[in-house]
Known about the structure:
Elements: H1 3-16, H2 22-34, H3 38-44, H4 51-65, H5 70-74, E1 76-79, E2 82-85, H6 98-105, E3 114-119, H7 125-133, E4 137-143, H8 146-158, E5 165-169, E6 183-186, H9 201-204, H10 220-232, E7 238-242, H11 248-257, E8 261-267, E9 273-279
Parallel strand pairs: 3-4, 3-6, 4-5, 6-7
Antiparallel strand pairs: 1-2, 7-9, 8-9
Amino acid sequence: MTYDQLMADGTARLKGAGIVNARLESRWLLAHVSGCQHSELISRGPDQVPEQTIAAFLDRLSRREGREPMQHILGTTEFYGLEFLSDARALIPRPDSEIVVEMALERISREQPAFVADLGTGSGCLLAALLANRPLARGEGVEASDAAATLAGENLTRLGLADRSLVHRGSWTGWQNWAEADLIISNPPYIASAEIKGLMPEVREYDPMSALDGGTDGLDAYREIIGLAAQGMKQGAWLVFEIGFDQKEAVSALLDQAGFDEITCRKDLGGNDRAIAAKRPIV
Ligand code: GLN
């Protein structure tokens, strides 16, 4: 069996499983198990593939046929220019969330120390992206899932950010440091429960449900966080959320009713409303 044959077989099987970028993904998987760059595979095309590599490829292929996300199979993914471990313990970092990081970074000084918090940190990607880009900042990730908290810790350590961060294991309702934060960021679960069944299998079956399900109208987490933030956050501090494409009005209204100021929304690269920021007023 040659590399070319194996890649073609892989492409056909992934196509059969309804995967759009079948050829590309077949190539990624073969490169991954061969331990080489995509470009190297081209020159190896007519060579025979070692038995062990074939077995490893077929294993990854059947996982992908079962619609396990590529990021879990490869074990890492890139977010905001950083590499994150990615597996079933937490929501996969998504490019859509990069705009949330950008909105937050615009509100954190480069010259002054700052304390930032990430509620429901999951993989730790939002917190890590903030700390990596603001060397004077320290931060805390709050995570109710023990498995996700462990993953966040692993990612922060791998990225050299462990000495400026800590992961609080527990829900944000029991978290005590609201008044310390200069900025709180969160990508909470925001899918309405009834919409979960319509998600792609990669999301529905493999991202943790606790990272997706936002209750009946998808807004449970926003209500909870905004309620606590309105009580506990320091004056002049920022709250920055990721939101669902159709949640701009609802989340703006919640922020407004809770007395937040300077409510601003930003679209992602796909043109959907994706990030919202608001300030706890100084009175
Ligand atoms: N953006 C995710 C999705 O579309 C949902 C993430 C979330 O609920 N925070 O699957």
